[in-house]
Amino acid sequence: MLLPAVLSLALGLWGVRRGGSMWRDEAVSYDMAHRSLPDLAATLVHADAVHGLYYLLLHGLFRASGDADPLLVLRLPSVLATALAAGTLALLGRRLAGPRPGLLAGGVFALLPPVQRYAQEGRSYALVCMLVVWASYLLVRAVETRSHRMWAGYGAVALAACLLHEFAVLAVLAHLVALPRAARRNGMRVAAVVSFCLAPLVAVSIRQSDQVSWIGGVHAGALLGFAGVTVLGAACAALIRRGPLPAFALSLLVLPALLLLLATPLKPLYVDRYVLYGHAGTALLVGTALDRLPRARGRIRVATVLTAGACTLVLLPVTLHLRTPQSRTDNVTAVAEAIRAAGRDGDSVLYLPSWRRVWSLADPTSVRGLRDLALDRGPVTSHTLYGIEAAAPVIRARMLATARIVVVTDPAGQPPDQAAPEQVKRQVLADHFEACGTRRVQGARISLYARPGRC
To answer: Which residues in 345-370 are b (16+ Cβ under 10 Å) and which e?
Structure first.
């Protein structure tokens, strides 16, 4: 429906530039989208194949946009995708529970903080969410009409979602679980076709699994967040009781995230944005429960009204915060400015650890005139995300041959990388240089080191 889509679009465009800031994942999107198609294809063979289709879409969009604001171009697909998802979710809610629950579900979806966050990020998650919602709507229509065309449409859209991010296949599994028995055979056939078409991407991604080695065990905050949303969904389902919506929405909300959590002992993979589409289930349940609220009795009604009011009060400061640079892990723009201010022509730059070179991908001018001491081959020429660094003895020799080094590193308290080149960097700095000053910006430290007496 139009109203939720317009609400989502307005929220997405409001403060979309976040004060001109960009965080490191967006910097990767920006860099990959600006590589030539041969370089992009060669890079995807070695890294980030899971996001390959998204990078290709961004590549075409940047080529077509000319001199338009790059931050707006980067984030506009997510803004539009979230608006389409909100509108489609309203149609889905209408099919499952009626016009008013559908309208409320679309509005709730647009207001959810995780949805608002990823509506303004240059990553694939909002687009995946839109396609999962669209696939969900087509699935419901396919079950209603028993139309082969609807089943084919469902399969095509579900496959598109999986090709944008392969964890969308967990939504297909959630759909299968929620299907009525009479429709499961068709559902299994479509799921088999989707899985078969997705298999080549999965095979490539498995070879690149070291890229997600940064995901550690599940933190208490993630578990509490998942548990809280699950309890909320279950409470709403208990209030709704009847109709196909509770089972369908609960399956979409709970099952994908639960499967990633259960996989943690084998391979930690749970990150909430990977299953952002689960919040479509949250919105369906909350929206329909709000519609049922006038029929509730006594304490249940009072408690629900008070809870809804409290959530509304909490939502405004969260909504405001999401549109500030401080709402993300780091700020690539601020890092670039700090590097530019710390260094001068003839100085060197050192990234500690090496993958923090990501902070310079979006604005290479910030390191212009600075020699990258550790770099052996750049990101583009090496067909990697962050470039390939030289061996530890080479890095040591280069550091000892320079007088001043701008060191770009993580905030204090982060565990140090134990790889040999990273240990050499730290040891040489400690033994042969002195710190001249440090500037702290969102998610990073930029320090100037010099030989004694050269600050």
So the answer is: eebbbbbbbbebbbbbbbbeebbeeb
Residues of the chain with pLDDT under 70: 294-312
Distance CA 56, CA 219 (A): 33
CA distance 440 to 81: 35
Render 231-269 in DSSP notation, one character per residue: HHHHHHHHHH-SSSHHHHHHHHHHHHHHHHHHTTTTS--
Residues in the chain: 455
Parallel/antiparallel/unpaired status of strands 444-450 and 434-441: antiparallel
Q: Are 120 and 322 in contact (CB under 8 A)?
A: yes
Taking every pair of Cα atoms in the chain, the longest distance, rounded to a whole number of angstroms, is: 80
CA-wise closest residue to 94 among 278, 305, 308, 243: 243
Q: Which residue has the tokens 């923090």?
A: 356
- Helix (H/G/I), strand (E/B), else coil: 450: strand
| pLDDT tens sequence across 297-338 | 555 556 556 666 666 677 889 999 999 999 999 999 999 999
CA distance 322 to 315: 11
Dihedral of CA atoms 359, 43, 60, 66 in degrees, nearest 10, equals 40
User: Whose CA is closest to 135, among 187, 205, 201?
Assistant: 187
Task: Give the sign of the dihedral formed by CA 46, CA 60, CA 82, CA 146.
Answer: negative
In angstroms, the CA 186 to CA 114 distance is: 33
In this structure, what token pair is assigned to residue 192?
């088999």
* Tokens of residue 355, six digits: 């993958």
Please state, in angstroms and rounded to a whole number, the distance separating the CA atoms of residues 390 and 366.
Answer: 22
Measure the CA–CA gap between 241 and 31, rounded to whole angstroms.
49
Q: What pLDDT score does 299 carry?
A: 56
The sign of the dihedral angle between the CA atoms of 384, 158, 3, 98 is: negative
Beta bridge partners of 280: none
Q: Within 10 A of 273 (CB to CB), how many other CB atoms are there?
A: 18
Q: Alpha helix locations (H) across 322-344?
A: 332-342
Contact by Cβ (8 Å): 412, 380: no
State the pairing for strand pair 375-377/434-441.
unpaired
d(CA 389, CA 250): 47
Beta carbons of 51 and 165 less than 8 angstroms apart: yes
Buried b (16+ CB within 10 A) or exposed e, 43-81: bbeebbbbbbbbbbebbeebeeeeeeebbebbbbbbbbb
Q: In the prediction, which pLDDT does 99 show?
A: 94
pLDDT at residue 70, rounded to an integer: 95
pLDDT for the residue numbered 309: 64
